[in-house]
Predict the 3D structure of the following.
Amino acid sequence: MSQQDGFTLRGHRPASPEGIETRRPDGTHRVVITGVGAISPAGVGVEALWEAVFGKRCCIAPVERFDTEGFDVHIAGEVRGFDPVEHGMTKKEARRFERFVQYAIVAADEALASSGLDVAAEDPARIACVFGSGIGGIDELQSGITTLVEKGPKRVNPLFVPTMISNMAAGQLAIRYGIKGECIDIVTACATGAHCIGQAVRDIRHGYADAALAGGTEESISPVCLAGFSNLSALTKAEDPQCASLPFDARRAGFVAGEGAGAVVLESLEHALARGASIIAEVTGFGSTGDAYHMTAPSPDGEGIRRAMAQALAEGGFTPADLGHLNAHGTGTPANDSTESRALLDLCGEEAGAKVPVTSVKGSTGHTLGAAGALEAIVTALSVANDCVPPTCGFAEADPACPVNVATEAITGYPQKVALSNSLGFGGHNASLAISPFK
């Protein structure tokens, strides 16, 4: 797909059915990733995302979508210059669909195309669509309330509710491709994308579906979102985009809001082999826990995060000693990064945990909220497929409160048994995906 500093992104590896065990030791199905798609502050496509992350390119800039005068925050990870018609949507769809749905379509179109899965040639009832959004159509919500207040109830858009509700990404994707299996939207704030992928993995693993389109999407760069997060003191007030999203760094002072969508095509290994699909990586485990602690803050002991990571590893038959790297939630907020660091050290032991390479995509893209878990799962899958660990853009000054091995430069020639991709959401929602190279 691309080359960055002499490194070739391979991604897809053809699979041969000969001698491959398609079931796990417990008799359930192995689940593999056969397609990926993305739209992010780096641009449209997985290649743009990978090149930005692997090349330590900061995609954060001053907000262009609206005037931020009077706001404490003026920068974000926007999807810039996006025209839905240029990416396969009709003018009617461009008018009717909220941006979070449009982003989901762009990512899903790429994922399905890269997988080669022809939904029309499959039993549509055996394909699931598990696609979420942490917030949904926030622009339509803000616009509808403004119209109600200023012009009265008769002027509110009759499609206000179906345009705005967060399940409409999954609904419109199912309509677009004719997917008739399970069609759901799991909402766990910033863990949404990871939980949707995890649910789809379980659907396939236990035989409820042969394949699934899964992921997350978000349109969070809006006045009310920026104001709300800023007043919560969750966002950094840094003016320099290059020094704003600083995962695990001693200078970190909050996250940078981002937006976009990530989509993956998942299949049972048996189904993928039967149709001669190319396989990117295998989802070997999924962990999901709750903190039961606070509305916005993670539990300081990191116990819930640690359990989610331990569950994901154990489901894949791995121990913490097998962990190749952690693609961390790594938002750049003081509490998140120190808590996630604590969880990793508790999982692996102080000495071993301090050696595990840690990376965060958010240094490049900002925090894409409901899309983050899906975008980061894609980066993790490509990392293990290509024997590498991407660097963390923005990290420069180590913090004693985060005594982990943050990758400052790309690590290459680094085969791994398994990597973890973490996502954490307001409300104490923890998700961890164990992703392995396909063997």
Notes: Residues 1-10 have pLDDT under 50 and may be disordered. The radius of gyration is 20 Å. The first strand starts at residue 3 and ends at 4. DSSP finds 14 helices and 18 strands in the chain.
